[in-house]
Amino acid sequence: MTVCSQCRQDLSATPTADVIAKQVFELQKLPLVVTEHRCESKRCPGCATTTTAAAPAGAEQPTQYGPRLAGLAVYLHVGHFIPLERTADIIEILTGRRVSEGWICACQKRVSGRLDPFITAVTTALRAAKAVCCDETGFRFAGKRFWLHVCCTALLTLMLCHRRRGTEGTTALGVLTGYTGIAIHDHWSPYFTFSCDHGVCNEHHVRELDGVSERDGQAWAQRMKIVLYDGLDLKHRYHDKGTDIPDTDIKAITKRYEQYLLDGYAVTPEPPSSPLPKRGRPKRGKTLSLLDRLRDRKGEALRFLHDPHVPWSNNQAERDIRPMKIQQKVSGGFRTETGAVEFCRIRSYLSTTAKNGIDPCDAIAMVLAGQPWLPAAPLPHCSTQKAA
């Protein structure tokens, strides 16, 4: 600036009165950095044997891509569900170098194959947790039905692809068998076959209570919904601040809960009995079935009031399992069972490291270097053994 913007007077000799900074943040091309390692070879003058120095870790081949580029490829493909061809396109745009789809698959296989220490450590940590959230969801590929099982906490995630939804698949996950903490889930009956204590998801109850209100117009359902939300408010008010909920408040919530159950049964007629005997249990209808579950599992539904470690809902598991649905929408599913298994193992790792604030590309690079990030080992006082 050399002249006044108003009167056009020369300002070249005028002292600067102020400096206003203007910044532009721009993404530059990220060219790959090539590091060359030279391994000397020497021939023995005595026996004529040629000895070559060992290459450093990660440079075993004449040319190869490094672990951070491999980490980016796996993170895009598994972490963000981007198909192989589009993953290669993105890497080419960012670096100017196109990688092959086969190389991305090889990286994914290599990462999955080196996650055994992590899978063992996260399973051990989950078994030591005071409460875990569990869920499952179905998916299909190659004409077969498979199930994704998840067990998690706010800091840990473990996923498993299995052909069975029930007890067999949950057992294969390796957490609930012999577990002595509290399993939080959505009332699905196979979970209750495990001998641990249980808590049930009140978010599911709220959805079903909304259905009763819309379908049957019964006022008790909205009142019960308010009771559950009042319990959640108590949990935030006391448990979030490290104190127990007063017994008087718990008794008041429980009394209202029981009263609205009675109100619900009073306005919901029993289904007419069938004159002909039928196999299985008689159908109760959606409203009576919900009332029966709220009555029979009252302790599990209200356990969140008594234990600060028990969440009000199972939303943590639903959030952790949602990527499977996104993957199916974006990529259309898996080509092989092996690919689904690799996806679950890597998603378990990426989800857990993200919860613990670890950069995803760094986390995958650690795996490729043979040293995956591991959750802290449970302390002795966190043992899951119950007192006699």
Key attributes of the depicted protein:
388 residues; alpha/beta; five-stranded mixed sheet; two-stranded antiparallel sheet; 10% strand; disordered C terminus
Helix and strand string, N-terminal first? Answer: EEHHHHEEEHEEHHHHHHHHH
Structural class: alpha/beta
Number of helices: 14
Number of strands: 7
The shape is extended
Radius of gyration: 29 Å
Account of the protein in words:
The structure is a single chain. The chain has helices spanning 67-79, 84-95, 101-113, 116-128, 167-173, 202-216, 219-238, 247-267, 285-296, 298-301, 303-306, 315-331, 337-355, 360-368; strands at residues 41-43, 50-52, 131-141, 144-152, 157-162, 182-185, 197-200. It has 388 residues and is of the alpha/beta class. The strands form two sheets. It has a five-stranded mixed β-sheet with strand order 5-4-3-6-7, with helices on both faces. It has a two-stranded antiparallel sheet with strand order 1-2. A hairpin with a 4-residue loop joins strand 4 and strand 5 (157-162). Helix 1 packs across helix 14 (360-368), helix 6 packs antiparallel against helix 7 (219-238) and helix 8 (247-267) packs antiparallel against helix 9 (285-296). The longest helix is centred in the middle third of the chain and has 21 residues, at 247-267.
